[in-house]
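General statements about sequence and structure are easier to judge against a single worked case. Part of our work consisted of pairing the sequence of a single chain with a tokenised description of its backbone. The amino acid sequence and the backbone structure tokens for this protein are reproduced below.

***
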Amino acid sequence: MATKKIKEIKKEGPAKIYISASFNNTLVNICDNSGGSVAWCSAGASGFKGTRKSTPFAATTAIETAIKKAKDKGVDEVEIYVKGPGPGRDAALRAVKASGVKITLIADVTPIPHNGPRPKKKRRV
């Protein structure tokens, strides 16, 4: 039986952590420079169900799990891209800082509409 080989990431620069914090869940994806996924985790994959997925503690647990997997593959320097309005945003950033990896960039990539679609008509009662 063949053993599974751990893939080493290319050391061309910092890895990228994409944090998507919605109101119901927090998703974490750690990628190398070529865009390939090194490690990922979510609050749901960390064992939380229902409304507990949307807590800051669940986001912290998801981040810690993903960074632990990435550190095993050689990640030591990261850029962080945060997206979404959820409660796990700040907790996720604190968890990354506490994990011991070097942070080179923190960017907010939340999509903001520049006026967006036409709103619904006013409700008449």
